Amino acid sequence: MSERKRKDREGEAGRYAYDGLDRVLHEKARLAILTSLAARPEGLLFGDLKELCALTDGNLSRHLRILEKAGLVEVWKGFRERRPQTLCRLSPKGTERFLAYLEELENVIRDAAAVRDRSKDATTLNKDPLLKDWVPA
Amino acid sequence: MSERKRKDREGEAGRYAYDGLDRVLHEKARLAILTSLAARPEGLLFGDLKELCALTDGNLSRHLRILEKAGLVEVWKGFRERRPQTLCRLSPKGTERFLAYLEELENVIRDAAAVRDRSKDATTLNKDPLLKDWVPA
């Protein structure tokens, strides 16, 4: 979205709803899996993926099933050095959806830029004169 | 983290675990609330926040309670033009934690940069010769 268009939406209903943050991709463990796979077009073996994401066998299997069911990840069975292996990689649709998701993530970061300047005087926040007539809930 | 240090971690266990993606902040609706508030140091009235995030009264209340309990958001009761109002804003701790969260989000985006180049020939993915001996799971 252009800077102009973003400005126009300022204050609009749903301005910060972030519809592009699809919950299938946004979940922390699945985001780890997708980012690991994104960096490796040739795919990753189950064991390597598990280590990179610091997930247990059971958790990785569970999240891979969700991603596979959504058509975002391909799971292949085969052999490497005579041992059965599972190879995981992004599907073309997964690549496309992950790119769209990343765009929305970048929107979040752009929207949040204001907080960085503000944080410089975070210590003065509680002395805000605006709040003199307000009480904690 | 420096480029050098990131390179050193390449392939390391937990490389993509993203421990900084605190689930309290990472949940989609709460991320919307935090980003809305980040842009407004003076805070937002409940009704305005609800519109910006496209949330229902019940959902906004529920997520605000979680954020308040975690000490990330302050909720104040007061009056504006003689009408009772609720004012929400980031706490100093919330600002700090949100900044740390944003840093980790930027790590995700940096890690995922590879997928953008790859996506240019996404159409050739299924003809990968590496997969000739593998079968779909």
Largest beta sheet: strand ordering of chain A: 1-3-2
Strand/helix succession of chain A = HHHEHHEEHHE
Shape of chain A: elongated
Low-confidence stretches of chain A: 122-126
Question: Which sheet architecture does the biggest sheet of chain A show?
Answer: 3 strands, antiparallel
Q: Largest inter-chain interface?
A: A-B, 69 and 69 residues
Computed structural class of chain A: alpha+beta
Report the portion of residues of chain A in β strands: 5-15%
Residue-averaged pLDDT of chain A? 84
The beta-strand count of chain A equals 4
Question: Looking at the chains present, what oligomeric state does this protein adopt?
Answer: homodimer
Radius of gyration of chain A: 21 Å
Q: Helical proportion of chain A?
A: 40-55%
Number of helices of chain A: 7
Cα end-to-end separation of chain A: 38 Å
Features:
homodimer, 3-stranded antiparallel sheet, 137 residues, 7 helices, 50% helix, alpha+beta
Detailed description of the structure:
Two copies of one chain form a homodimer. By secondary structure, chain A is α+β, with helices and mostly antiparallel strands. The first copy, chain A, is 50% helix and 15% strand. Chain A has seven helices and four strands, in the order H-H-H-E-H-H-E-E-H-H-E. Chain A has helices spanning 3-9, 23-26, 28-38, 46-53, 57-69, 92-111, 113-118; strands spanning 44-45, 73-80, 83-90, 135-136. In chain A, a hairpin with a 2-residue loop joins strand 2 (73-80) and strand 3. The two termini of chain A are 38 Å apart. The interface between A and B is large, with 69 and 69 residues.
